[in-house]
Amino acid sequence: MTNNKNIQTLIAERAAKELTERSIVNLGIGIPTLVAKYIDSDLVQFHTENGLLGVTDVDEEQIDPNLVNAGKLPVGQAMGASFFNSADSFGMIRGGHVDVAILGVLQVDAQGRIANWAVPGKNIIGVGGAMDLLVGAKKVIVTTTHTSKDGKSKLLQECTYPITSTRSVDIIITELAVFHVKNKTLHLVELMPGVTLEQVTQHTEAAFVNDLEGSFVS
User: Fold this and answer.
1) Are the beta carbons of 74 and 123 closer than 8 angstroms?
2) Distance between CA 62 and CA 150 in Å, rounded?
3) Is 63 helix (H, G, I), strand (E, B) or coil?
4) CA-CA distance, 113 to 110, in Å (whole number)?
5) What parts of the sequence cross the membrane (predicted)?
6) What's the start-to-end Cα distance of the chain, in Å?
7) pLDDT given for residue 147 in this prediction
């Protein structure tokens, strides 16, 4: 799998399988925004920090320039959608009313803590609602490519970028594997189609427990 678009699709489709009906789900920037395409049920409600519950895709000919998500991308509104102040939106997050947050990351460490808001010496988009979502969302799923553009692992023993929160995420999904985070330890629970354990081990710097074989990999 060398095509980046195919990789993103694979990750997004797998993440969609983690969502259940009657959930309120916040989608971060990047791969997370693709997840909604693979949800058939109208009973999953998508939330955005800038004040909309009931986010949907929108056709190009129906784009409203005033209707965007937190990443400033055009969105549509589902039947029965609600609009509200961004302060109320963050109140939902901090009050524990978002069931699942799906976030992109720059790095994730062996404890499941993520870095996704700052690269020292570079000007990037910033933290957005990630810190609040890590504190307030009931479940946090990470969707990311397993390695950076230069081939280095994004799953590190220790993050080299500033971490976003001390909270560990719950699930990490890449194009190579799925990890669950239990007691601040990564557990390999699934290999993606066509991927071998050797490939995962080769591209993962962080230590993890191999639940497929009941062994520890460092």
Assistant:
1) no
2) 38
3) coil
4) 7
5) none
6) 26
7) 97
pTM (two decimals): 0.93
pLDDT(178) > 60: yes
Beta carbons of 31 and 116 less than 8 angstroms apart: no
CA dist., res. 82 & res. 13, Å (int): 26
| Model pLDDT for residues 18-63, shown as the tens digit of each residue | 999 999 999 998 899 999 999 987 889 999 999 999 999 888 888 9
Cα(157)–Cα(161) distance, rounded to whole angstroms?
Answer: 12
**Confidence check: pLDDT of 1 > 80:** no
Q: Cα dist. 184→48, 131, 156 in Å?
A: 28, 18, 13
Give me the active site residues, please. Answer: 49
**How many Cβ atoms from other residues are within 10 Å of residue 146's Cβ?**
21
Residue 164, token pair as written in the block: 């976003």
**Scanning the structure block, which residue is given the tokens 């560990």?**
168
Token pair, residue 52, equals 């909309």
So what's the pLDDT on residue 5? 66
Helix, strand and coil content of the chain, in percent to the nearest 5, comes to 20, 30, 50
pLDDT at 2: 47
The amino acid sitting at 29 is: I
pLDDT for res 125: 61
pLDDT at position 122 is: 81
Beta carbons of 156 and 107 less than 8 angstroms apart: yes
- d(CA 106, CA 73) in angstroms, rounded, equals 20
Tokens of 53: 């519950």
